[in-house]
Amino acid sequence: MSGKVFDTEEFAKVARRSVAEGAVLLKNDGDVLPLGEGTRIALFGRSQYNYYKSGTGSGGMVNTKYVIGVKEALEEDKRFTLNQELKDTYDAWIGDHPFDKGEGWASEPWFQEEMDITPELASKVAGQSDVAVILIGRTAGEDQDNSSKSGSFLLTEKERKMIDVVTKAFEKSVVLLNVGNIIDMKWVSEFNPSAVMYIWQGGQVGGYGAVDVLSGDVNPSGRLTDTIAKDIKDYPSDASFGSKERNIQQEDIYVGYRYFETFAKDKVLYPFGFGLSYTEFETSVKSFNSTDAEASIEVTVTNTGKRAGQQVVQVYVEKPHDGLGNPARELVAFDKTKELEPGQFESFVFDLTAYDLASFDDSGVTGHKNAYVLEKGNYSFYVGSDVRSAGKAADYEVPEAVVVEQLTETLAPTIGYKRMKAVASGDGFTVDFEDVPVATVDPKDVRLSELPEEIAQTGDKGYKLSDVYHGKVSMDEFIAQLSDADLTCICRGEGMSSPKVTPGCGGAFGGVTDSLLGFGIPVACCSDGPSGIRMDSGKTAFAMPNGTCLTATWNMDLLEELYKWEGLELRKNKIDVLLGPGMNLHRHPLNGRNFEYFSEDPFLTGKSAAAQLKGMHQIGVTGTIKHFALNTQETGRRFVEHVASQRAIRQIYLKGYEIAVKEAGAHAVMTSYGVVNGYYTSSSYDLVTRILRNEWGFEGIIMTDWWAEAGTFGQGKRTDTASVVRAQNDLYMVCGDSATNSNGDNSDEALAAGEVTRAEFQRCAANICRFVMNKPVFARYIGEGNELDIKLEEDADEEELLFDKMIDCRVGDDGVGKVDVSSIVTTRNTTNMISVAFKKWGYYKLHMTVRANTKSELAQIPLTITKDKEVVGMITLAGHDKEWRTIDMDISPSFSTFYLKLYFAQDGMEIKDMTITLEQALEKWLDDMD
Ligand code: BGC
Description:
With 930 residues, the protein is of the alpha/beta class. The protein is 25% helix and 25% strand. Strand 5 (173-178), helix 6 and strand 6 form a beta-alpha-beta unit. Mean pLDDT is 94; it is low at 925-930. Beta-D-glucopyranose (BGC) binds next to loops.
């Protein structure tokens, strides 16, 4: 990292490269792409006017200085011209059909209305152009799944008509999909455009990245991270996806291509791992070695075509079929070449351990119940550029089953059901169903048998956290000083938008009370995530491409590099922890948050998360891997129970997290909202303590999702923090004020009653202190911040005072000024400036009455209030704050007209009244001073 320490331009270059490498070209008839210099383009599709930089919800709320969509990028590129007549037609139509932003949190439309394209217009424009580029845009997100209907997963009638008319009028047509996630692709064979490419939601420079591929500056090397089936009903999870109460995962380990390649090859339109290039590659296996259940494959990739380009090498295994039953293919290794010139080659060696090839036996069929077992039998390896075309590279035989890791029953389903199993028949497989093994032990009892030992309380002995840091006292001696009140307080995070940390961030934790601060525990800051920093204060940050796009690059070095920049931006903003990467599995294409997540494959998911964490770790900050675990739908996300077998949980849903912990040393985890096999994940001892900490060796902090329920299925309570601490989930996120227990949680009474032991609270407190002690906030706090902090400080941007609406307020002789609330614009991303004129110098107070007016219970509706340039207050209402709430805020002494800036980061806040009152005239204050 040379030159400037934080440089948005450099960050943008890496992001742009990521968008270009993430674009997946599915079709390119007659080599219509790349577009040659001088190409006259007719740009269709209204989403050219509203490029989607990301999906919606917390993962999409980065305020950016600018967004470059495809249209802007094409306009800037002087090698191309855009058809003016078509542009004028759209401009006029868009004037009457502005962007419909819907009704706020979780109610944004999935699509925008399309303009009617008549055959006459299309053929006229075709006569003036060389190629048609058609843009289709979609969004979805938190609290709002996609739908299998038109306008979401399916094209709308108008979109279909547009593609139909344009492909008929133009000899050459290219469809670009600016979407978060895969959509239905049946229309490709119906309308037969020359080229089709997923350009995903590419963040604030997404348009540049897409145009780099159109122009051929970058040869496409993105590959699908999901299988595109013919129909949504073809996905094996379709039957249970979206159920609000219980989601029984009968498909078990047969998620995505594991299902299709085993049972339903003919249902696939585009296989997992697929993507075209402008050149050709040849992949050859040079050698294969196996020793003691380990395997090593050497592969060479040669560019046999005419342009420079990159190729992704994918290695799949087919495990034996007569025991547990296994999918026909499982991804076990991959890599991406550097840019290869024609004729150039690159070699890779993929080493596979027994653990990489083992399966989890939860039934005992191999004779080794609850163990990772390398089953006896034949292992075949396939190497290639997608799951379907990968050719057989080698076979090897394991003569006897090998127990790779013996574990005990953990997180087993408590209700019985039939799960899918593959049975080999002829050259293929048939779907069979078997009884899932159900739980035989209650995690409650396991917890009781493993309670930690209490550290005898000593009271304050004057030790500070820095004494632990400098090795003067042990963590135990330090924790021994904390009173019961300190212990319950430290396990509560505060937010959203806590004034104790960088304005507008998601949460504050650590030294959240005066007493904790007194022990020298600073307040650490976390913020959403994942594809850029969300600061609800309106402060801008860089918005990166979405998770699916990044993983579609299959370039883990690039992801690491990108998140190094993100790390610097976090550090610059004094944020220690990003609330991301989100890494739930794409179990079903309609999950609204698939855009944030990576893939239907756990291995690829884990590698992507690990790469992002490694990038941030280089800068001393970290990310929070979320939502742990099985958070694969937004519908009913707060209460739904995911029922799955131990095998599916370990091999599919937890595998990515395991990789992130073991390979990248992840040390912050957020549990999900939902329930897994009986317990809310926030309160699951099996998940949090037994698997994550004890088995994988995780040593960091674990936090709940914001305002999560806790306890057991059907009995969830937001106030049940006792259950959270019992599980060793360290931080309940979030409350307004930890010291006064503003959420009214049950921690204090549960500790007093011994329902949670003091030792359990001490254990969480130590986890939190250890974490904070190793973050930049601590070094700054004890005055040992390094050169990087100083440089970043110097670099810090001054935010400009921009606003959308100016409102006047006069404070009369009676010292009261009423703001006309009907003129305040409360829509998402709006800044209102209130100019306050008054006659008397003095202390003023702001009084407001507000409530949430939105459909979603979990909506986050932040308002930041700034006086001139100083943040004087932040309010975040949750969707469930439906009652009027009064807010009073002190404003520092004022001597002349001042400006109050009200920044609304989301829709959904209703304001009943707002007054500015004189509390104390300054003459009086001066008198007092005398
Ligand atoms: C989301 C999390 C997010 C948190 C804070 C929750 O609603 O599920 O992903 O980090 O809010 O914004």
